[in-house]
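User: Could you check the structure of this?
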Amino acid sequence: MGVSNQTVKTAYDSAMENFNLAADALQLDENIRNMIRSPERILEVSLPVRMDNGHIQSFAGYRVQHSTARGPAKGGIRYHPGVTLDEVKALATWMTWKCAVVNIPFGGGKGGVTCNPKAMSQVELERLTRRYASAILPLIGPEKDIPAPDVYTNSQIMAWIMDTYSMTKGYPVSGVVTGKPIALGGSLGRNEATGRGVYYTVCSAAEHLHIPIAGARVVVQGFGNAGSIAAHLMHDNKARVIAANDSRGCVHNSKGLDVTKLIAHKEKTGGVVGFPDSEPISPAELFALECDILIPAALENAIDGSNAGKVKAKIVGEAANGPVTPEGDAILEKNGIFLIPDILCNAGGVTVSYFEWVQDEQHLFWEAQDVYNRLERVMKTSFAEVLKIRLDHKVSMRTAANMLGISRVAEATTLRGLYP
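Assistant: Sure, the predicted structure tokens are below.
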């Protein structure tokens, strides 16, 4: 009937493929593999929401707890039309290894709602969020599972979740989510934490490869929170950001874009397109630009078997979750491109989320510089640990990071044993 037998590889398939590569390199016991491979809990909920026109629309929502072996589940909530259970399972799995790589006492979780937040009013978003928070309430809590912002969610949405949870408890519980407004127990430095963590790990990679940051050519694919902040820090330290894009288009200037003005332009117009002193290029051209550092900071599977061979960067720093597929990985590695995997590169967000949770639980808050100093120490230590595994075992940086994360989860699982 002309139907292809070829199976499309999903994000969760990629997560399992990378797990198996690292588990094989660790020679991990089959029993431990069986205990740590699959999610512990999966909740799928239907969310009826009254829209502004009076009609009730139903949305699909998910919360997945992959592992609580090392502590409460931790992971963001994304609102996006493309959210699926498969994607949420993959992201929760990556969160487990990510928390372990930076050695914070959390396991991995993730949540999502299949919706188009750009087409919803603020009141509709609040109704959706409170309904979703109510639906996942049995799973979440500061000692069980701590959500955070992700794609198209923000501090206001975290505030609504915190309030909904607190109303059911009868008292304020600030530690139920992270990424909150400062006024509700949020942490200074949380908003820029992911981009700052990307910057610290890219600097570590550049130092390892003897590439000076001053004058380095940087390309940023995805000029959202993480991408724009990483670009701003690079720009402040004399790197040359030569191209950037968002969902609306790409801009390029071989002499360098003024990142401060580009951020202001995006805030004013809603996108990077039309930025003065730049020329438009296609997404395919963006990936093929001659540069020192490429930062994919949008959604997963941006670099795959079809375009990885065109990448001319020396360093690829994964600010997004899963932006390079296993096929893309193999090509980048073969071409001698140094990849900083997502579970290391973008772990700044969850690290400062941990700092926020600690501050909430202690009711004692830190200065911004203290947050930055602690984050820099965690990111650079974790980079050095992953790099050592890469050099000792002669594996890719992704496999090395997975080996570090998986070995720590395996150790905790072995020590805890099997109940009952």
